[in-house]
Write a structure and sequence with these properties.
single chain, alpha/beta, 224 residues, 19% strand
């Protein structure tokens, strides 16, 4: 079964004009990880930040930098994001033909390796790399934009991946439309890392929002 619930706010929903301050604020508000969405305008229809921004943010927070590369190709940029201070680097199974190689490349820099699946990709796509990952990220929206509605059909995929993980020490992360209403659903299905963007940053009540999401998820996890 999954472990403690980890809340990883996505800075995609932060105020980019004061990103360092926003990272400090969610750190003080009680988040566990900082989720950094990297988009290239090619693999997904948006452009966000690069390794220089990650490097600039690193001195502002000691917590885990959970860097999600929604880019293709990803291999040429892994070293840059590792050097910038990422702790976990997640690549998409769909982003290139050699997923195993990409995961080995991440680990060669002493970083934890993650693999992500878009909503249309089945869990079987990662079956043969499970022993080379520290994290599996299930997208519960189509990647590219924040603030999208949760896709409930992904709950069965989360359950299937939790079963596949078995007793391996692998985090199961969910990203997309996670809020107080959906957090219990993904936690009950087996997720232990919840990425939340607009649900954390809305209204400026960061600590209250993080606590509410965590509490809803933990109650569902305990009941599962």
């Amino acid at each position: 079964m999954a472990g403690d619930i980890i809340i990883a706010p996505s800075i995609l929903s932060a105020d980019f004009a004061k990103l360092g301050e926003e990272v400090k604020a969610i750190d003080r508000a009680g988040c566990d990880w900082i989720h950094i969405d990297v988009m290239d305008g090619h693999f997904v229809p948006n452009i966000t930040i690069g390794p220089d921004v990650v490097k600039a943010l690193r001195p502002h927070c000691d917590k885990v930098f959970d860097t999600h590369l929604m880019i293709a190709p990803c291999d040429p940029y892994i070293e840059a994001f590792a050097s910038a201070g990422s702790d976990i680097i997640t690549v998409h199974a769909e982003a290139g033909p050699h997923l195993d190689r990409s995961l080995q490349h991440i680990r060669s820099f002493g970083k934890k390796a993650g693999v992500s699946l878009t909503p249309s990709t089945p869990e079987t796509a990662i079956e043969y790399v499970l022993d080379k990952v520290d994290l599996v990220l299930v997208m519960t929206v189509n990647p590219g934009f924040g603030g999208q509605a949760f896709i409930p059909e992904q709950l069965e995929k989360i359950r299937a991946i939790r079963e596949m993980i078995g007793d391996r020490h692998i985090h199961l992360e969910v990203d997309g439309g996670v809020n107080v209403e959906t957090a219990p659903l993904v936690a009950e299905a087996g997720a232990d890392v919840l990425v939340a963007g607009s649900a954390v940053f809305k209204g400026g009540a960061y600590a209250e929002n993080i606590a509410a999401i965590r509490d809803a998820a933990m109650r569902a996890q305990a009941a599962a």
